[in-house]
Amino acid sequence: MTQDPPVAASSSPSDGPPPTGAGGGTAGATDQTGAAGRTRRGRGSGKKRRLRFHVMLPGCWGALVLACLSFTPSLLPRGGVLQGLICGISAAIGYGLGVVAAFVWRAFADRDARTPSRRSWLVLLVCAVVLFGLAFGLGQYWQHRIRGLMGVTDYSALATVACPFVAAVVFYLLLMAGRGLRRLYHGAARLLGRWIGPRAARVVGWVLVVGVAWSVVSGLLLGGFVNAANEAFSVRDTQTPEGVHQPTSALRSGGPGSLVPWDSLGRQGRAFTGSGPTAQQIGGFTHRAAQEPVRAYAGLSTAEDTETRAERAVADLRRAGGFERENLLVTTTTGSGWVDPAAVDSFEYLGNGDTATVAMQYSYLPSWLSYLVDQSKAREAGRELFDAAYDVWSKLPQDERPRLFVAGESLGSFGGETAFSGEYDLRNRTAGTLFAGPPNFNTLFREFSDHRDAGSPEIEPVYKEGRTVRFTEDPATGITPADRAWDGTRVLYLMHPSDPIVWWSPALALSEPNWIGEAPGGDVLEEMVWMPFVTFWQVTADLPFSTGVPDGHGHTYKAAYVDGWNAVMRPEGFTAQDLDRLRGIVGPPQD
């Protein structure tokens, strides 16, 4: 491999005066031997005292290229610290790729590593200053434009200045971690070489190091982090949000006569049943006599297992008269048990209060974290809850059944999908479905999107000419295809072009998705391009901040629920002005 310029060796102390004896030749020989010994010791000492932090020229070029490319825009606006994190990770990946590329090239060229000249390092330094400065400036320009598209006004000049320093620290830490693994590999190979051949020792050594590293990251670090987060959020789950009180209505779980105790609902369950529009508020909007909506819920403390928890929630729904309403909604929560108030409030307003909603909690973790680690729990919760509700609903006389709807946002849409096998199942067993911000790994979402009609873009696909399933980023401006009939059950997906939850996938690291190669959505810059590794880390970094942007962008869908439910439920008597007024009513805080 390419070596760094040699570091000057430090001189070794004298071993003392030469011994006296007969013959100058002996003394001369002794002096020469001592000088040679000192030279050898000096070289050894210099090698030991070699600078700990040294880099290779090809790796530095790779780091520079990927660091500059990391400033290209992604889906959401990025602050300086976050940009520094992405830049540091990209630079570390680029450094590794540069070192590997140089090693492969030398192998094919059959030549040894050469020490780079001072001129080579000087060229790198000049290019680094010019290219990084240009990339940094363009990055700030692109971020300014993204903030303008989304109406984001927050900006920190201090964080922007800190970006290069954060990147340098992240790059250094990752580089040291990589070199630590390399030293571990060499140690393992030397140890194994005592019992097996050198080639086998190197291969087994790599396998052991990779296995240990993966175990530490996935088991100890990730597992420990998830366990700590679970403990922390389980304590938070015992609290009640400010302004929320135990319901005095028998139509709510946790209220009088409820089969689910108030204390077992969890924080988000208490927020769900202890809030929402009243009959008077709904009537004030519809100008008709309205009913008090039914809301049933079961928290993690309500029952030990998912199946029993689902049965308890549905039993409380039935007790409260939920199956006697005109409209029944089964919604799968996100992470900590949160249900977007805008989704349920819109459903209740447009249903004039003649509605019932049932949901249940399956995790303590917040949405973004449960999105990464609680997928199996969401799948089980969505299937068990719908099956429990459908079991009761299907046994009712046909003329007494309420219209059965399904909804879910983010991981809730993933859980909601698992109760169905496909388009026909959704159409035959529901009156309508509304999913918002579906994760890219949703089974049905991927099936509908991957098999979309030819010519339709991935950000707004058309499936089977839109006969049952349709997609839109803003239902207020229209749902494609507008020239096709949409009869019977309607299944609608809401997804913003700038929502990283919808577009994030591990495949981003090595393959370009269609949604980047096609024309971008209205809130995504045309300058966004796909780059190996870089785009993956950019979109990954967008995930925790997907709800920190104004409504209508990223992972916020409050106003879209009004027009989305209006399209799916098809209520009568509401004008465009009524819908516009309702958009101003629904908009409580998000998870």
TrEMBL record:
InterPro entries: Alpha/beta-hydrolase_catalytic (IPR027787), Alpha/beta-hydrolase_N_dom (IPR027788). One of its GO terms (molecular function) is hydrolase activity. Pfam families: Abhydrolase_9 (PF10081), Abhydrolase_9_N (PF15420). Residues 294-582 form the Alpha/beta-hydrolase catalytic domain. Residues 1-47 are annotated as: Disordered. The keyword Cell inner membrane does not apply. Keywords: Hydrolase, Membrane, Transmembrane, Transmembrane helix. Residues 71-277 form the Alpha/beta-hydrolase N-terminal domain. Residues 28-37 have a biased composition (Low complexity). Residues 38-47 have a biased composition (Basic residues). The chain crosses the membrane at residues 53-76, 82-109, 121-143, 155-175, 203-226. This is Alpha/beta hydrolase. It comes from Streptomyces erythrochromogenes.
